[in-house]
Task: inverse folding
């Protein structure tokens, strides 16, 4: 604005959403170009949370890298490093004991539930349903208590270790899990009651941010945004890692690829995760929780990619080893970094209010995008 | 003497009392809302200031007054300053014509109190004057038109506030509220016409008296009009699901993004005062105002043990509860959907309601 010109004289309004905006979920900055309330274009600006995790890991031993990966996606901290650990274990040919494998899967699925709960909470809040927010946090709190009992921290956990786990389950832990899982599906029904058939919710989400299956694949989307468009792609089924092939669960797939379908998919995923946890509790054998791990990890020269189905999509680690105790290069494939690219395509032609719904439906975590 | 007492002194006392009481109710309505929403959301709400947070509104008020008064450099200082007042004043002024009791509500009190100071003739003259004794500030024959006119002014304050801030988010909020006001005023007006046709009067006092004479609340005669009135009332007060002008997750703070301190609190008070106004109007037009349930059923005489004011307040608070309950339950509409519902659903239904009502009245 120069001189006497006011905002009223501008034809196309350029609005800065974030990095301090209530619904950009962290420090995402979106530059919106508005024609009235209609979005003509947008530009995502990232990097406010860049910590150089990938570079740091070149100067840390294979074991010391893990806490950094735990903290990239702080919403799903428990399962975050799993992909990396599976990669290192495969390169080093370390056998993970059966009990540890089941506990890992159980906690990974708990983590998926917690992550989806936080997503639903903030997504609903963005669209204006504030009560769902607190209901979701009520259940998430129970999961965080379980995390605290097992890992000693609620959010910034260092959960899984090379070769298995740090500690065995504390006394009474399995019962606490069982109590939660028995209750949980009822709570999901409660959220559904508030939202799924709610006229306003349907108006706000159906047909908003629609993306076709081809486009979704072209953008490299994964996780619920990809499955919402009708592509049945779940690494837990396609490349069963860490023992998922022993479990029975369904992968929900959408049809229209809009915000509503992605919402339904995530709700169903919570139910399926609860089902997996229940099976894990039944299967849980006795035994050691950590395999034989050498003092210093020196994977043979080579490269390895290992991806897991994180709550937000395919979370991959590409590890290059030069035979030394430090990884030569670790490249993280963060699912939401790739999902965020689709934002520009998704918001075009929509209204300003849809932008927050679309940012919400992509379920971005800036810690992971910026790394 | 009678004139001074009946037309100046006693009405002044009533106005001052009403403004004070309304301000108090507004302050505690914020607490009520926070508490109710907290219970809906399985938490406790304010608990720190006073027992169960009962002194919270006072603490909030003090905080607002003590905050720095900021006027953005690029803002239009004059409009920026008066806009909150423009928003607040109509919210209170509307109450001038809203009856909260029958025309002889204060008769007994006035007779007793004046009897201590004046002779019988003066007391009698004042006691026969409904301006002094009525449970209202004024009883216009165009009361309802007055309400519609004044309440429209209130939204002008929102538009001016957003415009004067000379900032992008408030401007968007102000534009939204302008569009919203136009859309919903029309449907609201048509909804009210249904009541006018049935009652044959624009005076709010007479509308209640007609309901008493008919022995039925108008909500049972005009249910469609009532539903429309309530929905449009939600939109008029910028409450969820129609709080688009201040949608905090989209527009940060909407029209009041640039406001802080006491000026912000004026907008806040205006919103809550408007909630009370809309509730009071809904009660007056559709729920029998100060009347007890089943006003003509003799054997329910014990309901009269609750005074007229008690019924009025009770009903108003039921509506306020409904407002808060809706806020705790529903998501927010999108701008184009709001317009679509306003023009394509509510307005045609309201017009049809008017036509049907008129036709029925003509035949009966």
Result:
């Amino acid at each position: 604005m120069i001189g006497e010109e006011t905002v009223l004289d501008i034809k196309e309004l350029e609005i800065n959403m974030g990095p301090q905006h209530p619904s950009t979920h962290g420090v995402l900055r979106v530059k919106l170009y508005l024609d009235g309330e209609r979005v003509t274009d947008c530009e995502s600006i990232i990097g406010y949370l860049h910590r150089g995790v990938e570079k740091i890991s070149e100067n840390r031993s294979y074991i010391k890298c893990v806490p950094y990966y735990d903290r990239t996606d702080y919403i799903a901290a428990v399962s975050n490093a799993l992909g990396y650990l599976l990669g290192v274990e495969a390169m080093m040919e370390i056998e993970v004991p059966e009990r540890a494998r089941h506990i890992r899967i159980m906690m990974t699925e708990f983590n998926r539930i917690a992550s989806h709960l936080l997503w639903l909470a903030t997504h609903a809040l963005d669209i204006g349903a504030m009560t769902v927010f607190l209901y979701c946090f009520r259940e998430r709190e129970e999961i965080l208590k379980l995390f605290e009992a097992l890992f000693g921290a609620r959010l910034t956990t260092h959960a899984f270790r090379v070769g298995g786990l740090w500690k065995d389950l504390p006394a009474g832990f399995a019962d606490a899990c069982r109590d939660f899982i028995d209750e949980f599906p009822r709570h999901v029904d409660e959220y559904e009651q508030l939202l799924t058939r709610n006229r306003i919710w349907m108006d706000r989400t159906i047909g908003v941010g629609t993306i076709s299956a081809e486009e979704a694949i072209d953008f490299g989307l994964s996780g619920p945004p990809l499955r919402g468009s009708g592509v049945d792609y779940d690494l837990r089924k396609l490349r069963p890692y860490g023992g998922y092939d022993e479990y029975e669960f369904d992968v929900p797939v959408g049809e229209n690829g809009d915000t509503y379908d992605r919402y339904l998919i995530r709700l169903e995923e919570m139910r399926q995760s609860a089902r997996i946890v229940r099976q894990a509790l039944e299967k849980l054998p006795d035994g050691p929780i950590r395999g034989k791990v050498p003092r210093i990890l020196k994977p043979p020269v080579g490269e390895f990619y290992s991806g897991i189905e994180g709550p937000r999509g395919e979370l991959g680690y590409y590890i290059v080893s030069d035979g030394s105790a430090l990884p030569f290069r670790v490249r993280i494939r963060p699912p939401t970094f790739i999902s965020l690219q689709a934002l520009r395509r998704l918001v075009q032609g929509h209204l300003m209010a849809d932008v927050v719904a679309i940012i919400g439906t992509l379920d971005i975590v800036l810690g992971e995008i910026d790394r | 003497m009678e004139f001074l007492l009946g037309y100046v002194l006693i009405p002044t006392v009533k106005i001052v009392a009403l403004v004070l009481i309304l301000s108090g109710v507004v302050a505690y309505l914020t607490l009520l809302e926070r508490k109710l929403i907290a219970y809906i959301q399985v938490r406790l709400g304010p608990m720190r200031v006073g027992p169960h947070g009962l002194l919270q509104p006072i603490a909030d008020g003090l905080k607002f007054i003590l905050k720095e008064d900021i006027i953005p450099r690029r803002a239009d200082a004059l409009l920026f300053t008066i806009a909150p007042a423009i928003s607040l004043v109509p919210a209170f002024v509307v109450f001038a014509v809203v009856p909260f009791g029958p025309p002889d509500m204060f008769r007994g009190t006035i007779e007793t109190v004046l009897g201590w100071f004046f002779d019988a003739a003066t007391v009698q003259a004042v006691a026969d004057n409904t301006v002094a004794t009525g449970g209202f500030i004024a009883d216009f024959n165009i009361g309802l038109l007055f309400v519609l006119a004044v309440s429209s002014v209130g939204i002008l304050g929102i538009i001016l506030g957003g415009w004067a801030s000379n900032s992008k988010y408030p401007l968007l909020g102000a534009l939204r509220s302008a569009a919203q006001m136009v859309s919903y005023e029309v449907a609201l007006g048509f909804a009210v016409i249904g009541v006018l046709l049935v009652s044959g009067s624009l005076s709010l006092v007479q509308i209640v008296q007609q309901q008493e004479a008919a022995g039925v609340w108008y909500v049972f005669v005009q249910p469609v009009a009532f539903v429309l009135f309530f929905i449009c009332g939600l939109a008029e007060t910028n409450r969820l699901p129609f709080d688009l002008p201040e949608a905090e997750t989209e527009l940060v703070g909407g029209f009041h993004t640039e406001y802080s301190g006491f000026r912000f609190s004026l907008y806040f008070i205006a919103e809550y005062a408007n909630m009370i106004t809309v509730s009071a109007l809904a009660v007056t037009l559709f729920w029998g105002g100060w009347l007890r349930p089943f006003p003509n059923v003799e054997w329910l005489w014990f309901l009269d043990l609750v005074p007229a004011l008690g019924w009025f307040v009770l009903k108003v608070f039921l509506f306020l509860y409904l407002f808060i309950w809706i806020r705790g339950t529903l998501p927010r509409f999108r701008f184009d959907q709001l317009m679509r519902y306003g023009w394509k659903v509510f307005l045609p239904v309201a017009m049809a309601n008017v036509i049907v009502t008129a036709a029925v009245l003509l035949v009966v």
